Amino acid sequence: MRLRPVLVVHYHEISLKRGNRPLFLRHLRRNVERALADTGPAAIEQLSGRVLVDLEDHPAPEAARDRAARVFGVASVTLAYRTPSTLDAMKALLDRLLEGRSFASFRITARRAFKTYPMSSVDLNRALGAFVLARVPTRVDLEHAEQVIHVEVLPAETYISLDRVEGPGGLPVGSSGTVAALLSGGIDSPVAAWRLMKRGCRVLFVHFHSVPYLPATSQAKARALVETLTHWQYASRLHLVPFGEIQREVVLSVPPPLRVVVYRRLMLRIAQELARRAGALALATGESLGQVASQTLENIACIDEAAILPVLRPLIGMDKLEITTTAQRIGTFETSIEPDADCCTLFTPRHPATRTTLDEIRAVEAGLDLERFVAAGADGAALETFAFPAAGAAAIS
Ligand code: ATP
Ligand code: MG
What we know:
This protein is α/β, with parallel strands linked by helices.
């Protein structure tokens, strides 16, 4: 018997109440397509309320399922198998799917999408349940079944599935527009970028480095982080901005306690210019309130004032522990904790001012050629591109 696998991809209808349903679905479908691109032939079809992926000639349906289960916007993915809607055909398929499986308890959940099918759902549950009991040493448990067997009778055929995996939820990447994220080599900013991807943003990465004043480690870390994060958005751009020369000039006139805030304001201005060129509508950082000296409300207010675009701070109310747990879950943590000298440590004191005022900052910035810095940073930035899966996904939209 030849198996005919299909993925049934469900999404939360609730996220569609915003009147942007077609946009949501277009991005979801395209992202599922990209996520599966290198796994094998997969034909994607939009049905009402779900996306169907035909894996008839696919060599590894489970691998395809796991990929689809990581696409933002997906609530769950079911790997199902198609069969004609006769009871004999359903039993034959079940027989095959049960091979090598054991479970202490089970339940059949049959649904008929068209009510003129000759058997009721209850009859189907009974008939197929008896069939399973005759084959597997197990028992029926309607409340807490270890194995749920879903049977869905559609007009043309029936789907039977034994596993459903949870998706990550959220919104499909691309459906919320583009954000330029300031990515250091630290723990927080990759998590911030990931959270925005989860809310449907395509993230453009901007990293500031101080080569040759500091080693190139931070760039290597930024690359590794972007590579990991690209698993969720399939294609990424990373701008590596040379910041050391700008910092060298800043230290000539800005007193040490104010340098971190001045650096940050410059970073925002340069990132904003790169965002403008790429059509991004907002900036993002990994700041969390009170975590370090530069992240007091006073300093955040001062930093914010440098940008016209909104600065999104998805981690603002999160504790370090929550952020760290997420970093571990998404796979960025190990890279983030590799030793490295962040560019903000260059020419700055151990204890920066925690309550900077805008007047102080404006006074010191008056002595700086900000426009030239922004142009030098944005024009001097090196652009690198990343794709996942590596093959066939090189095009960046
Ligand atoms: P992270 O863990 O993300 O490095 P942090 O807790 O070290 O954050 P800060 O050093 O104050 O906090 O940095 C605050 C934010 O400023 C970072 O989350 C990041 O968005 C941005 N940032 C800092 N340094 C850089 C850099 N070298 N390149 C790009 N963005 C940076
Ligand atoms: Mg840092």
